[in-house]
Specification:
Elements (H helix, E strand, L loop, with lengths): L1 E14 L2 E6 L2 E7 L6 H13 L3 E2 L5 E3 L1 H4 L2 E6 L21 H19 L4 E3 L6 E16 L10
Parallel strand pairs: 3-6, 6-7
Antiparallel strand pairs: 1-2, 1-3, 1-8, 4-5
Helix pairs in contact: 1-3
Length: 156
């Protein structure tokens, strides 16, 4: 499971011209689910995202996590993060989870985040929808985080 986090001043996601979620200061997470991911990877990555220290402390160093900073989390499913880009000029998606598994694990991730951060501080995109994501990147600060099972996805 992969998550691209961006520290934001604000972020929102819209579907069919309607804003379905909006956050103020916090993290925008683009979440990619791979075919061998399980609930364990979802929980592990969630805890990693919420504890990752990307907000400034009193000395201006990145030393505070989103929870301690009082920030919010906007979770947007993005299957293209699971793409195989190792060869050629067209991405392959054989490493991406099937839609049913990806949707379930996306929901599990959101439930875990809501339980740990508080439901009022977690916004979501819409799985499978054509979404328009807007953000003001603060920094910019952007990191790719992955669950610990890296390397278990192999080509068939």
């Amino acid at each position: 499971m992969k998550g691209l986090i961006q520290r934001v001043s604000e972020a929102s996601v819209a579907v069919d011209g309607e804003t379905i979620a909006r956050i103020g200061p916090g993290l925008l997470l683009l979440l990619g689910v791979e075919r061998n991911d399980t609930l364990n990877e979802a929980k592990e990555l969630c805890r990693k995202v919420l504890s990752y220290r990307v907000f400034p402390d009193e000395q201006g160093r990145m030393n505070v996590n989103v929870q301690a900073a009082g920030g919010s989390l906007l979770v947007v499913p993005q299957f293209t993060l699971a793409a195989d880009t190792s060869s050629g000029t067209r991405p392959g998606f054989s490493l991406a989870a099937a839609p049913e598994l990806a949707n379930r694990l996306y929901g599990d991730f959101v439930a875990e985040a809501s339980g740990l951060l508080g439901a009022g501080r977690v916004g979501t995109g819409e799985f499978g929808a054509d979404m328009k994501v807007a953000l003001i990147n603060d920094g910019p600060v952007t990191f790719m985080l992955e669950s610990g099972q890296r390397g278990s996805c192999t080509k068939m």
